[in-house]
Amino acid sequence: MDLKSGNLYWTNTFKETPSYPFVEEDMECDVVIIGAGVSGACTAYELKDSGLDVILIDKRTVAAGSSSANTGLLQYSNDQLLHEAIQSFGKKAAVDHYWRCFDAISRLRDEIVPSLPIDPEMIMRDSLFFATDEDEIETIQKEYSALKEAGFEVEYLEEDEMKKWLPFSREAAIITKGDAEVNPYKLTHGLVKAASDAGVRIYEQTEVFLKKAGEGGVVIRAAGGHLIKAKKAIFAQGYETQETIKEKNAVIESSYAVVTNPIDDLSFWKDNVMIWESARPYFYARTTADKRIVMGGLDEPTPNPDIRDQKMIAKSDELIKEVENWFPQLRGTIQADYGWSGSFAHTHDGQPIIGQYDRVPNSYFLLGYGGNGIVYSLFLSKLIVRHIIGEKDAAFSFYSKERIYEPEVI
Ligand SMILES: Cc1cc2nc3c(=O)[nH]c(=O)nc-3n(C[C@H](O)[C@H](O)[C@H](O)COP(=O)(O)OP(=O)(O)OC[C@H]3O[C@@H](n4cnc5c(N)ncnc54)[C@H](O)[C@@H]3O)c2cc1C
């Protein structure tokens, strides 16, 4: 599958990447992970100290799939807002899910990043979520109330107060705390390198196919014919999983991003807050370690990479215009140094999935679909590992494709 096109930014920030061999022999292990994007990288990291014998394989190189096209915003708020998730799943399930996202970011900061051999440039940032127009004010108010009631640190901004944060303002906005920005390419490489250092066997440039999955385990055939036998398989193939299992809850669309030239003075942008809005699809923006602006959005409802890419130049121009609308002082001084398009999946019901299918026993499909792909991968990988080692976690069944959870009694 053609996952992305254009001129990517993150791959230019890290050129001395570790490299790994391709598969050249038959092998056996306890767990094989297919896919070394951020989902497979998180899973390898979670398994590295489990005592299990683990293999991680990718048909490209590490982080060369969607994880290099990612814009690196880590937010506990989801594309499905908390008050909307409460409508769909009830208060307990929705609030627990939001706290799980929040905790995943905190754990990344406190435990994971300090242990990585590659610095992923994680910086804690507040997020500013604004009403695109006056019809959306109620959405902001409902979200503010839902977050506040659930115990999150959230601040409501009227038009005048938003002006203290940014050069443009809208009638309503909220500030949430506990989010972060990251370099997703370095993060994925850091997780894989940490796993490798701890003994996980990593292979690149080897496409693999499921040969057999049964009660005794899973057999994977590598390009070249070698077989890998494992007790369990974790498929972390990103959006390409849809070529194998066609999960009905998943939809593939297209998204776009640009990264500007470095900007000397960003003092008009208080605390480099990460910005997003209530319109769907939405524009969003963040800054980078070298003082560039990343702006993304303008999603198109097409899974077709040819149609996606035909629009790439026009979309880059539109994204730069939107940066200039938000920050008029930059008009005429910025350009898209980098610009790309990418396939992008989400689910109909707004939640990521741990897929288990009767026809593929002993296998887990990690589908961290949605705008919070990294955050989802962080905790879904942990849930899968806990399931494999026999630790029960009620959250696991909420992310099953059947969405099993305790319904509320009203
Ligand atoms: C423009 C854009 C912006 C985004 N912004 C954000 C953001 O700000 N924050 C966020 O959290 N998420 C964001 N996302 C989503 C995020 O990129 C994805 O959720 C995430 O990268 C998915 O990671 P993954 O590991 O599941 O997939 P991938 O990174 O695609 O990794 C899957 C890997 O599996 C390998 N593979 C597939 N099939 C096989 C096979 N048969 N054999 C061997 N290997 C195989 C592939 O080569 C690939 O490397 C964005 C996405 C796009 C497109």
Structural overview:
The chain has 410 residues and is α+β, with helices and mostly antiparallel strands. The protein has a domain at 7-70 and 185-243 and 350-398: FAD/NAD(P)-binding domain (3-Layer(bba) Sandwich), CATH 3.50.50.60. Helix content is 28%, strand content 28%. A hairpin with a 4-residue loop joins strand 10 and strand 11 (227-235). It is globular and about 65 Å long. One of its GO terms (cellular component) is cytoplasm. Pfam families: DAO (PF01266). Residues 30-385 form the FAD dependent oxidoreductase domain.
Cα distance spanning the termini: 46 Å
**Roughly how many Å is the radius of gyration?**
21 Å
CATH superfamily of the domain at 7-70 and 185-243 and 350-398: FAD/NAD(P)-binding domain
Bound molecule types? flavin-adenine dinucleotide
Helix content: 25-40%
SSE run: EEHEEHHEHEHEHEEEEEEEEHHEEEHH
**CATH class type of the domain at 7-70 and 185-243 and 350-398:** Alpha Beta
CATH topology descriptor of the domain at 7-70 and 185-243 and 350-398? FAD/NAD(P)-binding domain
Strand content: 25-35%
| Separate helix tally | 10
Per the principal axes of the C-alpha atoms, what is the gross shape?
globular
Q: What is the mean pLDDT? A: 96
Q: Give the number of DSSP strands.
A: 18
